[in-house]
């Protein structure tokens, strides 16, 4: 009784204060919120929406003298030239295959790692495991590729020393087209599995312990408990991360590929994004490469929409 | 959870425990070995590294490689530049991210849905490399420090994480009460919201600073002058470009190759050191940041 009275009194006071502040006062209060947003929104418009204006050069023959707006329209000429070029198939295949293999091989690894962390009985050991696997995440791409090149070096690297010890011939890993994708993907796993497992570990700790008890009562082995309790418990998280990954399907690891690329492995390391960089920025073919970049983004966007839709129907989880 | 549940019966999964522990040890070895190799090689006699004698521990312990780095002017310039880019860049990042995240966390802000869509969309679609490059070029930022500080002023993901934190961790009643006391939004942000958000602010500073420290691609496309090179670009030259130079010189002076080879390991260590030394102290915060980010707002 007393409480509800106090509550109504408070509410009334609040309403009064609000009303006495008046419409103008409230707008003034929000005016400074918009003032805060001024700079960030201007920045978003300039640096994220500005390039969308510049994207029109994909359909134009960009002439620096005439500027973006004044250059001649050429329709889909650049796209046609790209589709008909001899390197189109190679670029598309490399881009698709590197990303597809990454998705198939690298995506499940952090999930497995999280399950291992979750199943370890020693809490301190599982902390150690986590902390150690995080380390490579904080190293730069340049450093990672540097480590790869010394570690896999044909003369001095321990990998080739091991091969030689077993009587094999040293392999020039970094200059081999055949090894490129394997090295790229496995070093990605090495660098990121620990970090990517964090979300899964958090999700696993949220699974209701009673479910494990119940499964145990029913005589489920630990492997079965992982399969029937742990995994279903984190499916929503898995689906969300999968969608996000597929949304960036066409541009995973561009910087690293660029660093690992050399003339000897170009056959399997030449992807759309590195081609855009070398032909666009270095050789100045802006219009042509803007068109190729647009093609790349459109595939990404299409995949994202498709997968999101599919996930919403089947797993009842989606980004929006 | 399952640890407690399975603690009692001995027969339940002894073999399973062994497999899990062995896997964990294997993962640790695989992650650590390359790092240990690089550290050991950096402290070893270059001739022994080149001869492939270094496996696990340093052979012919020496600081030679590090001494060579001390005399390398390029590395110092890179270091100094990177410290500046990281400090100034993170400062800009934080101001811009807070200024965007706070108003957007306010449920009483008209138009906030629309603004959030405007911002979130940029995570899924962009003009691409070339139009962005042309924009930065037209703004006259190419070959200036601005190109490394301004185009990346806000990471949308961080903005969303921060907004979620403001929204979920600071009681709305508190803000309303402050308003009733006649507190302006600027003061509210400065003296109530920010002091209450120290954990997330710390996480963001770390995310941004490490990002600046490790980034090389923007510098690669926007910076031509060597005096403006960040550490990562200098590093790239030493690790990847001098490699071919060293190969060309094979017939020439052996010492030169030796030096170029040995400096690589040390340079990897020196450039990663600041982040790795910080790491044990801030590791928990990073994890916290990912956790907050995974809670959808």
UniProtKB/TrEMBL annotation, chain A:
Domain ABC transmembrane type-1 positions: 92-307
Membrane topology value: Multi-pass membrane protein
Top-rank taxon: Bacteria
InterPro entries cross-referenced by the UniProt entry: MetI-like, MetI-like_sf, UgpAE/MalFG_permease
UniProt key word Signal: no
One GO BP annotation of this record: transmembrane transport
Entries under Pfam families matching the protein: BPD_transp_1
Compartments where located: Cell membrane
SUPFAM superfamilies noted in UniProt: MetI-like
Residues that span the membrane, as ranges: 33-50, 91-116, 128-152, 189-208, 229-250, 286-307
GO CC annotation terms, alphabetical: plasma membrane
Sorted UniProt keywords: Cell membrane, Membrane, Transmembrane, Transmembrane helix, Transport
Chief location bin: membrane
Family per record: Belongs to the binding-protein-dependent transport system permease family.
Protein name: Sugar ABC transporter permease
Biological classification of the source: Bacteria, Bacillati, Bacillota, Bacilli, Bacillales
TrEMBL record, chain B:
Residue ranges crossing the lipid bilayer per the database entry: 20-43, 83-102, 114-134, 146-166, 187-210, 263-282
Localization of this protein: Cell membrane
Tree of life domain: Bacteria
Keywords assigned by UniProt, alphabetized: Cell membrane, Membrane, Transmembrane, Transmembrane helix, Transport
Pfam family membership, one: BPD_transp_1
GO BP annotations, alphabetical order: transmembrane transport
SUPFAM superfamilies per UniProt: MetI-like
Keyword field contains Transmembrane helix: yes
GO annotation, cellular component aspect: plasma membrane
InterPro entries: MetI-like (IPR000515), MetI-like_sf (IPR035906)
PROSITE patterns recorded: ABC_TM1
Residue ranges annotated for the ABC transmembrane type-1 domain, each copy included: 79-282
UniProt similarity note: Belongs to the binding-protein-dependent transport system permease family.
Protein name, as recorded: Carbohydrate ABC transporter permease
